TrEMBL record:
Protein name: Nuclear transport factor 2 family protein
Coiled-coil annotated residue ranges, if any: none
InterPro entries attached to this UniProt entry: NTF2-like_dom_sf (IPR032710), SnoaL-like (IPR037401)
Database matches in PANTHER family: NUCLEAR TRANSPORT FACTOR 2 (NTF2) FAMILY PROTEIN
UniProt-listed Pfam families: SnoaL_3
UniProt domain SnoaL-like: residue ranges: 12-136
Length: 143
């Protein structure tokens, strides 16, 4: 497999993580995350949360978040993807828009999060092992 194809598949796997969240589809979200021998090492840090460890705990958090999110949209920018054999890292900026139906303006929040997503290759497919999102409090350009 060429390096470009490998990287493209990684970027697609990363995009599927966000698409599953936007769709509120826990089955899709579950399919994104690593399992089997990697299940105990699955780790997630949602913005403002403490670290969650273990596939079951991480997926419970996604079920809770999805059940309480009426609408969310991600526009990913600054996506950088690096493959290191059977592991890979994607960093990106999540530009997030959330809304609540029936609200006066409909918009609850818009903001940016910097994310690091660590993937492992399992059976030829990239599966998410670690997601760490941190809110961007000061988006000023570095000097």
């Amino acid at each position: 497999m060429s390096r470009a194809v490998d990287r493209d598949q990684l970027v697609e796997a990363n995009a599927e993580f966000y698409a599953a969240f936007e769709a509120g589809d826990l089955d899709r979200m579950s399919a994104v995350w690593a399992d089997g021998p990697y299940a105990s090492g699955v780790t997630c840090v949602h913005p403002g949360w403490t670290r969650l460890r273990g596939r079951d705990e991480v997926l419970r958090s996604w079920a809770l978040i999805m059940a309480n999110t009426e609408y969310i949209q991600f526009v990913l920018t600054d996506v950088e993807a690096d493959v290191y054999g059977e592991q890979a890292v994607v960093t990106c900026k999540e530009n997030v828009l959330t809304a609540e139906q029936g609200g006066e303006s409909g918009i609850l929040a818009a903001g940016s999060i910097v994310a690091t997503n660590v993937f492992v290759r399992v059976g030829g497919n990239w599966r998410l092992l670690v997601h760490h999102g941190s809110p961007i409090l000061n988006d000023a350009e570095e000097q």
